Amino acid sequence: MMKQILILGGGASGLAAAVIASELGAQVTLLERSDRVAKKLLATGNGRCNLANVGKNAYYGDENFANEVLSRIGAEDVRAFFDRLGVPTRPDSAGRVYPACNQAAAVVDALRLRLHQSSVRVVTGAQATAIEKVEKKYIVKTSAGSFSADKVIVCCGGLAAPKLGAVNAYSLLTNLGCKLISPGPALTPIETEKAPIKGLSGLRLPVTLTLCDGAKPVAATQGEMLFADYGVSGVCVMQLSRDAHHLLKRRAKPILYVDFSPAMGLGDYRMERLQPRNPFANEARMLRYLQEREGYMPENDLLLGALPRLLRERLPKASAEELAHLLCAYPLPVTGVRGYDQAQVTQGGIDTKDFSPETLEHHQHKGLYACGEILNVDGDCGGFNLQFAFACGMIAAEHAAMAE
Questions:
Q1: Which partner from 234, 243, 349, 363 sits 20 to 30 angstroms from 398, CA to CA?
Q2: SS3 for 186?
Q3: How many Cα neighbours within 13 Å face the side chain of 361?
Q4: Which runs of consecutive H residues, i.e. helices, occur in 215-282?
Q5: Which of 354, 357, 364 is nearest to 399 (CA)?
Q6: What are the phi and psi torsion angles at 141 (to 5°)?
Q7: CATH ID of 4-183+349-402, from 3.40.190.100, 3.40.50.300, 3.50.50.60, 2.40.340.10
Q8: How far apart, in whole angstroms, are the C-alpha atoms of residue 306 and residue 262?
Q9: Closest Cα to residue 106, out of 199, 172, 41?
């Protein structure tokens, strides 16, 4: 007899699950809160849709759970899935995998077409409010009525990007006994004290960043930073927002140190996460550089040509020694992180301990699965979050469609 499967959520994991389950012969109904599926997917990667990453995994929350899931369905499996849908993919030099045409719309079109070809029933405007088990069936109550099925795959996502359809769906699973790890925004800009950034809004520079808890380095990144009126943004900043959020929650006073060496052509420069280090590690090299410039640059404008005017005017008129100290570790006291409306992903979520990384099925509630961002797993920028979502959906759908 054909299995009936309900999929809650039309994001990355829900769409992948719907495709796989229907291909394996299940009768699939996909319930989506918004007026159409894949809104967030269309916006990812600045509209290019960073599908996966062929490099080393970079996950937080339950990192081991994520790694176990991806040991079964990895980046190359995700690429093969999209190749089969007619979307060729290509990794860039940093390992980020995009559709070859660099268009998120191509990914969404291919997924929607396969849903249509596989006769998946898509019900929009259907926000799930409760899941109940009645005898051998699951009943899902929604704003569009009740639906029943043999199995349910929960792919409702987290709280990030509410304008793209995010909704608090954790109660669907906590009401069934699952534990919620306190959620928060991740991959979001960082707010700082205003005085050190006054007049710099809109300025972009390649930098090295070190987030410190007092004198202790906690995390570090390198990449392009954007000054804003509230603080700083850019991928390298957002990679540190998770740690900044946790420091602030425990009432620490984190400081983000900016090393301008990359903007001045000093040392290697790559857009990547780094090992935490002493933020003043480059001070000696910076001093040598400035002392060399003293031989041929105007005394009153030692940094002319090395840094933009806006930044030069923010720096004090000081000796080479004092400037070296400041330029390799410009302090930005952290006051907060931006909220879910600017976050790319949610940290925290449903505790993974109740779910199998081999199948994504609940250990006690057989036939109930949870996938993607709703779980306590989040990754760095670079395709890791979509990769985890697609992998979860594919694994859960295969098990739901094939297992008794």
A1: 349
A2: strand
A3: 16
A4: 235-249
A5: 357
A6: -90, 135
A7: 3.50.50.60
A8: 10
A9: 41
